[in-house]
């Protein structure tokens, strides 16, 4: 390999060079800005995590698996996974191999930003080497991989259903520019490299193409226009990248280490939130996943549009989207980047100023402490369970049958757990409620806090500091009792039961197996079409502030339809709110796990 | 075969019975189809009727006896309907096919399933019953849930009525007066018991209804509390504690009761859905059948030859139902006279 | 002019003089606020009612009668638990009403 030109530069590299420099400066500026926006503590934690070997290794692994190989996407849909990883990984390999080529053949050109990209333009092949042939082969191979990805991307544009997507996002103007320039880059690269393959060498793709072109265009191929076009396509893509969804490529590489460092979204726009928003690839997987998509008018209220509106600074729409969401967490579950939509919305809600700020100093916890019993198991029914007396009665009945001694924390109504306040983004009020309830629970001398409502369970398990008191949901506790033989459950092999995962218990706390085991002990478990991590919110969630009762109806019907996929005799859930929401519309019985086990023991 | 005078009446409650009776006296040959094993519908399970405390038999007996000679098909429902130019061909269960030029729909209502308002604890607590259960107890004296000597009894109005969560926005019209009637009857049987009525609004529009109300207040000392019950909890001794707001004083109230009676409301009969689609008559938003208009043609549908009688178009009292049945029969008469 | 006596201020609410702008603004945001039938379900079930006299029914009424201080007082202990939303027979989004009123009070400081 020798350098073909007397000077290692040609004006056609300028578009690329300008675009690339712009992106690099933009990203550098962005990183600095985001680091400045972090609190001192967050920043310290983040920077330390980068040099800590365990997190550093995890960062590299996660970036490789998620950004390049798109492992999560593969799990969702193979076509979608192949399309993304072929483009991302193929491109990555071409860049790496380009550098290898330069380092191998012309090591003193490595410092030139554009050189590895346009290597084939600047060099001429003097003699064939095995090493060169392998490299050329790999270059052509990965180019082919990318091109198949691009073809799939074009197919997806017209027929997204093949890729398991019913709805995709409507692209903005700049997204379209980015998209077309991205599509153009690789065919143009193929064209350019084929045009020069008789000089710079090539492999199974470029050499035969070069031969064909020469049959038509003669031996002296005029190759400059194709190289110009290739560079311009690259330049345009780079120049618009910061303003398009393709910003997710650099942003995700920032998101993964920040998440691994344990950062949380505290401000809706700054710091970590900014990285989350920029990491959204705008693929629209969350549109189909969002339970609100049961109504057409809500299609633009899912996380992908929240991110887009935040990037555009459209405040009224940001507010609207933030308040409507049910906070079911499904968008985060299906998002291959893991953008935490609910957390962004909560942070947005937390920014509001109120003229009336709740405070609970006039509430005396002693009034509740006085009514407590002394048993080791303390049962907190929670607000919602008071409106579903069947659940409460069954829980107590099961405890009696299993010989568990218990006392009830809120026999005549108690305080709220704080989760609803938290879902309204009001941290201070939440903290106060946590403080009050904590003092009551600690005064009881219990060692187990038993809960019926997943809304309560989530905050008690994740935000309360109860010093060794076990926090347990009745579905888990009763399953234990049944496994230990303390609760004899009679199984009805004819009874088909579909278990609905409440959002707060499933996605919120990761409890999927124990309730299923408990249901299986009483009947035949059948699954809804979507289940576990992908179960559909019942529509009753306290997460949404603005959705009216009437507008939740379609969500409930959609979720019910999903539950009835296995034609069950009854729907079993583990949440008083789900149970009463379904109860409004279901034509088959809806029961809580406690009611089921009580009736079968 | 002569089908010209044959008229199908669907539903054997008071509306269907009265319609059949009137058709018979107008010279038609009504065929009365009832899905249950006996005629009389919901009324048959009641004990006494407002506003004169008339025993149910005094209404049903004359109706039944006047149906002599009318073909009555019990335990039968409509499977499908097709329409040719002049007549309807109705396929019934048990293989019967009827051709008739006109149909009167008198399929009535369904009593709201009190179990659906879970917070009231019907089917969960032992001391919670419905208005229908109470009437049944008046009739038979048998219901383990009704205590021997209650000292406090409560009535909850509007259970499943005027309640969007229960899927019924409409007022059931008859529960207010039924609650007062039943409260008076309970007070008569248990003079020592305190009786509470929890209401949202008292809608006592009919003749003599207000007299009932005054009677309940003045002579029976029934407590009327303006507030909807929101929660019912069971006490250790089996009694139930009811929580409501006394909205007139603006204070929350709690009361321990030996018996709680839920006034289940009138809701649309889901059997109408099938019938409506077979006959292509539209349903209203509330699920009841839609009259051609709500002033002039309440008993007429949008389909020629299809008439409505009674609560299949919305909640009604018995006298209203009977008048509509007569109106529907007359409607059939006029419709067929015009066609001759 | 001095008549030698004073009229004591009437306890009647003069409906035509009450400033209901906040209520109207609330109804613009959440039209359901107008559909309350005052059944009292929300008050009876309320977790905070025994602490601050919270009641969505009274809240809506007080706003329409210009009793701004009452509103502020009763709202102080609301925990947003959502029971009132669950029991409302009219399906009113009470939690949104509560949050909206709390926000709107930002601008009414001078009025109280």
Strand content of chain A: 5-15%
The helix/strand class of chain A is mainly alpha
Strand order of the largest sheet of chain A: 4-3-5-6
Radius of gyration of chain C in whole Å, from Cα?
A: 16 Å
Rounded to the nearest angstrom, the distance between the terminal CA atoms of chain C is 31 Å
- Main beta sheet of chain A: 4 strands, parallel
**Overall 3D geometry of chain A?**
elongated
Number of domains of chain C: 1
Question: Would you tell me the structural class of the helices and strands of chain C?
Answer: mainly alpha
Biggest pleated sheet of chain C:
none
Helix-strand topology string of chain C: HHHHHHH
* Rg on CA atoms of chain A, Å: 29 Å
Low-confidence stretches of chain A: none
The percent range for helix content of chain A is 55-70%
Count the beta strands of chain A: 10
Tally of discrete structural domains of chain A: 4
- Report the total helices of chain C: 7
The helix content of chain C, as a percent range, equals 40-55%
Question: Mind sketching the topology for me?
Answer:
The complex is a heterotrimer of chains A (601), B (340) and C (112).
Chain A: E1 2-3, H1 14-37, H2 40-51, H3 53-68, H4 71-76, H5 78-105, H6 119-122, E2 123-124, H7 130-158, H8 173-195, H9 197-200, H10 206-217, H11 224-240, H12 248-260, H13 272-279, H14 285-289, H15 303-312, H16 315-324, H17 330-334, H18 341-350, H19 366-369, E3 377-380, H20 389-401, E4 406-408, H21 419-423, H22 427-444, E5 448-451, H23 454-462, E6 470-473, H24 474-483, E7 496-499, H25 513-522, E8 524-526, H26 549-563, E9 570-573, H27 576-585, E10 590-592, H28 593-599
Parallel strand pairs in A: 3-4, 3-5, 5-6, 7-8, 7-9, 9-10
Antiparallel strand pairs in A: 1-2
Helix pairs in contact in A: 1-11, 3-12, 5-7, 7-8, 8-10, 8-11, 12-13, 15-16, 16-18, 20-28, 24-25
Chain B: E1 6-10, H1 14-25, E2 29-33, E3 48-49, E4 54-55, H2 56-65, E5 71-73, E6 78-83, E7 88-92, E8 97-100, E9 102-105, E10 109-111, E11 128-130, H3 131-140, E12 152-159, H4 175-189, E13 194-199, H5 209-219, E14 223-226, E15 231-234, E16 240-246, E17 251-257, E18 259-264, E19 266-268, H6 271-279, E20 306-308, H7 318-339
Parallel strand pairs in B: 1-2, 1-9, 2-5, 9-20, 11-18, 12-13, 12-18, 13-14
Antiparallel strand pairs in B: 3-4, 6-7, 7-8, 10-19, 15-16, 16-17
Helix pairs in contact in B: 1-7, 4-5
Chain C: H1 21-29, H2 41-45, H3 49-52, H4 56-65, H5 68-75, H6 83-87, H7 94-104
Helix pairs in contact in C: 1-7, 4-5
